[in-house]
Write a structure and sequence with these properties.
single chain, Rossmann fold, 7-stranded parallel beta sheet, globular, binds NADPH dihydro-nicotinamide-adenine-dinucleotide phosphate, binds guanosine-5'-diphosphate-rhamnose, NAD(P)-bd_dom, EC 4.2.1.47, GDP_Man_deHydtase, GDP-mannose 4,6-dehydratase activity, NADP
Length: 343
């Protein structure tokens, strides 16, 4: 019988890539869907006939118990979150509830369902749990590059809530002998990235500017430095983490850094334009507490999982600009332009 995976956050960037990856490995893939007519279900429309769906919300404990009980998964990937950092200052309580308490609720749902089902006794009957932890937990860095033992100093309500999710996953592993791991993933992007995040905001604006639909791109801190990779590579690491004999946490990133400034320059170069003619700094887009620089040390993931990234940052920006040129051209023909982010 094929293995069964339950993915929360399946309509997000990572959920869509992970679903594709697990389907390609022969898994039966279930996605947790919330709301009545989820608008983002279109992101996985090409997969809909291959997927199964179950209703649930990370804010609702009962719905999670019912979902886990119905699906009886071998593996649960908790990718659901409010994932845009600036939003977490505007809706701090909601962010804490979804990104922090939501992890606890998912762990409790697994514990309850496993506890009720006597056939799940022993490690072979365990439901394995993956938590989407984040490099934002490092925040104001005390050492570089950052590895699994680096101390956390989160700089946003998002980072603080993710840190709770990280530690409660570790605590359930230690307290109840659950198979739970956290992937501390650094920024990863793709043509499916939400339009608020800086790489996609840039690639979309470059396409609109190239096609004469926009002239200026407003950005915040161009000096911020990140370790950016390709989302398709990172979901492979998530799956590998759950296949290890012993559960432990892993840092996943490329070990290479670029600034927002580099991203802007590369994206405009892709279409033969000079970024200086179009980019405007908007102080309103600078964050209340910025994470200035992050760089991964993925040595453990490379050594123990055999994981390697396959896409360079240059290739990633190129891929995103090409994709948005096609998207914007198509939308222009349909008279239905993709809305630029106001963030
Ligand atoms: P997205 O923002 O693209 O997707 C977030 C998903 O969470 C959506 O499917 C959304 O569903 C779902 N969601 C939000 N609130 C709830 C809720 N209350 N109940 C159930 N589902 C909910 O994020 P990514 O795919 O980029 O990221 C996946 C995870 O990885 C997130 O947890 C993020 O914080 C974390 N992460 C991401 C990194 C990155 O660089 N991408 C790096 C490190 C960590 P809906 O369609 O209903 O809104
Ligand atoms: P981040 O990603 O906050 O690192 O979180 P984002 O792309 O939003 O910001 C990266 C850096 O770019 C700077 N920046 C801008 N960012 C945005 N969005 N818009 C701008 O106009 C702009 N100008 C400069 C930011 O200040 C920041 O320094 C992402 C999310 O996916 C999280 O969920 C995840 O946990 C982390 O990556 C790892």
């Amino acid at each position: 019988m094929s293995r069964r995976a339950l993915i929360t956050g399946i309509t997000g960037q990572d959920g869509s890539y992970l679903a594709e990856h697990l389907l390609s490995l022969g898994y039966q893939v279930w996605g947790l869907i919330r709301g009545q007519a989820n608008p983002r279900k279109s992101r996985i429309s090409r997969l809909v006939s291959d997927l199964c769906f179950v209703n649930g919300d990370l804010l609702d404990q009962g719905s999670l118990v019912a979902a886990v009980d119905k699906v009886q998964p071998d593996e649960v990937y908790n990718l659901a979150a409010i994932s845009f950092v600036p939003m977490s200052w505007e809706q701090a309580e909601l962010t804490t509830d979804v990104n922090g308490m939501g992890v606890l609720r998912t762990l409790e749902a697994i514990r309850l369902v496993c506890g009720l089902d006597k056939s799940r006794n022993g490690s072979s009957g365990q439901i394995r749990f993956y938590q989407a932890s984040s490099s934002e937990m490092f925040g104001q860095v005390v050492e570089s590059p950052q590895h699994e033992m680096t101390n956390f100093h989160p700089r946003s309500p998002y980072g603080v809530a993710k840190t709770y999710g990280h530690f409660i996953t570790r605590n359930y592993r230690e307290s109840f002998d659950m198979y739970g791991v956290s992937g501390i993933l650094f920024n990863h992007e793709s043509p499916r990235r939400g339009a608020e995040f800086v790489t996609r905001k840039i690639s979309l604006a470059v396409a609109q500017i190239k096609l004469g639909l926009q002239d200026k791109l407003y950005l915040g801190n161009l000096d911020a430095v990140r370790d950016w990779g390709f989302a398709g590579d990172y979901v492979r690491a998530m799956h590998l983490m759950l296949q290890q004999d012993e559960p432990t946490d892993y840092v996943v990133g490329t070990g290479r850094t670029h600034s927002v400034h580099d991203a802007v320059r590369m994206a405009f170069e892709c279409v033969g334009l000079n970024w200086r003619d179009h980019v405007v700094i908007d102080p309103g887009l600078v964050r209340p507490a910025e994470v200035e620089t992050l760089c991964a040390d993925p040595s453990r993931a490379k050594a123990e999982l055999g994981w390697e990234p396959s896409v360079t940052f240059e290739q990633l920006m190129h891929m995103m600009v090409e994709s948005d040129l096609q998207n914007v051209s198509r939308e222009r023909e349909l008279g239905d332009l993709i809305l630029a982010s106001s963030w």
